[in-house]
Each structure stands twice: as structure tokens, then as C-alpha cells.
TrEMBL record:
Keywords: Signal. It comes from the Bacteria. This is DUF3558 domain-containing protein. It comes from Nocardia amikacinitolerans. Residues 27-47 are annotated as: Disordered. InterPro entries: DUF3558 (IPR024520), TAT_signal (IPR006311). Residues 27-44 have a biased composition (Low complexity). Residues 1-26 form the signal peptide. The keyword Signal applies. Pfam families: DUF3558.
């Protein structure tokens, strides 16, 4: 066979393969890559109220757009999920500067807080409170100058377990004048109403 016939067949083969490849990729119009075989598949979270197990792979679902706007948070939270990390979600406030910026973190937990009297209190500032009719432990962090630093809260959930909610202010070294624990309680009350 002359060389030009072989060259034409080779070129037609290459062009044909390119057309098949282009056609195959053009059929996928979703714009998102298909999940890899090793990636865990999770279904979307159901509407609230949720048991804590429903939030294992969707911890950022615990606050909706209205709550995110109400608490002056960035619209998208930073999510951590198993198997690499324990489930949690962190949001940063839109406010900036020493007096207003803060980070909020939510994490479902397996610890049972139904009998807070039986557990050891490790921090003398920890106090027992009620969040949406449920027992909770609240711990403020105060600075030596008496200003507010951060606040953490563990609240029990009727279906079992508990959740952690913490707010750390940007000026944690110097503290802030606003009541960090009041905001923590406010956010925790919204979250508790969405859990069963």
C-alpha cells in the first residue's frame, strides 16, 4: 500500500476517535464530575427536626439562610465530615474588627447530657442552663480584665446525644464588651428547636 493511503487511514482513525470522545463528553451536561468509587455517597438531609445522626454528613444544614443572616454569618460554613474528621461546621461572622468578629462552631456529639449532675464539672465557671426545655452546660471564658472571650455550650438532644456550640471572638486575647454567651444561647436555642 502506498504511504499516502496509510496516512489517510491513520488520520481518519484519529479524527474518528476524537469525534467519539467529544460526543461522549458532550452527552454529560450536568457540569459536575461523577463521584469517584471511593467517595462516600450521602443523600440530602431531610427537613427538620432531625436526630443528630442525620447531621453527620450535613452539619452545616443545622442553620438555614434566615438564621445565617440573623446571626450575621458568612453564607457558607466550613464543613467537616467523616471519615477524615468528626462532623462539624464552622461559620465566620461578616462583622470585622476586634469588637465584632467571631467564629461559630457546631458539632453533633454522642455524649449523653441527660444527667448533668452525675458528670464531673471541670471548669468552675460552667453552669447548668435550659435550652429549649433541654439541659445544657454553658462555659464562658473571661479575660483577666473582666471582658468576654469565648463561650461554649453542650446541650442534650431528645433522640440521644448532645451538640456542642461555641463562639470564639476575634479579640480573644483582649476580649470584647458584648455578651458572647448570650449570643451562644440565642444560636443554640434555634439549633435545639431543629433537633429531635
Amino acid at each position: 500500500m502506498p504511504s499516502s493511503v496509510c496516512d489517510r487511514r491513520w488520520i481518519l482513525g484519529v479524527v474518528g476517535a476524537a469525534v467519539v470522545a467529544a460526543t461522549a463528553t458532550a452527552c454529560d451536561t450536568s457540569g459536575s464530575p461523577s463521584p469517584s468509587a471511593s467517595a462516600p455517597t450521602t443523600s440530602p438531609v431531610a427537613p427538620p427536626p432531625w436526630p443528630l445522626t442525620d447531621l453527620t454528613y450535613h452539619p452545616c444544614s443545622v442553620l438555614g439562610p434566615d438564621e445565617i443572616a440573623r446571626f450575621v454569618l458568612e453564607p457558607s460554613g466550613k464543613q467537616a465530615t467523616p471519615p477524615r474528621e468528626l462532623p462539624s461546621c464552622s461559620w465566620s461572622s461578616i462583622q470585622t474588627g476586634q469588637s465584632g468578629g467571631f467564629t461559630l462552631r457546631f458539632a453533633p456529639a454522642t455524649s449523653d447530657l441527660s444527667d448533668l449532675d452525675q458528670r464531673r464539672v471541670r471548669d468552675p465557671l460552667e453552669r447548668t442552663i435550659t435550652i429549649a426545655g433541654r439541659r445544657a452546660a454553658l462555659t464562658p471564658t473571661l479575660r483577666p480584665d473582666g471582658r468576654n472571650g469565648s463561650c461554649s455550650l453542650y446541650a442534650s438532644v431528645p433522640s440521644g446525644g448532645s451538640f456542642y456550640l461555641g463562639i470564639a471572638v476575634s479579640g480573644i486575647a483582649t476580649g470584647v464588651d458584648w455578651d458572647v454567651c448570650a449570643k451562644t444561647i440565642d444560636v443554640a436555642t434555634v439549633i435545639a428547636a431543629r433537633l429531635r
